[in-house]
Amino acid sequence: MKIPARCPRANCYAERFVGTVRRELTDRLLIINERHLMSVLNRYVSHYNHRRPHRARHHTPPRPDHPTGGPGCTSVRRRRVLGGLINEYEPAAA
């Protein structure tokens, strides 16, 4: 079944993801060529699916590959993604 053009409710999940990618990534980054675009998108998709907190999940990542900090966590380590465009945070070892 084909999705009608300019109809965001037809496929709301895809529209939401595309909007998020535009706001958080491509509006802030100069894309040089298709290879660069694919490399940046692959890294962002990995960040989005594994590390980015989602409001619908009470600010927890969908598939965390690292432990998330609890309320008593006092030290945090920052990891830069995509040259510092995005930052990922995780509890530091005590």
From TrEMBL:
Biased composition (Basic residues): 50-61
Domain of life: Bacteria
Chain spans, region Disordered: 50-76
A Pfam family it matches: rve_3
Integrase catalytic domain residues: 5-62
Name under which the protein is recorded: Integrase core domain-containing protein
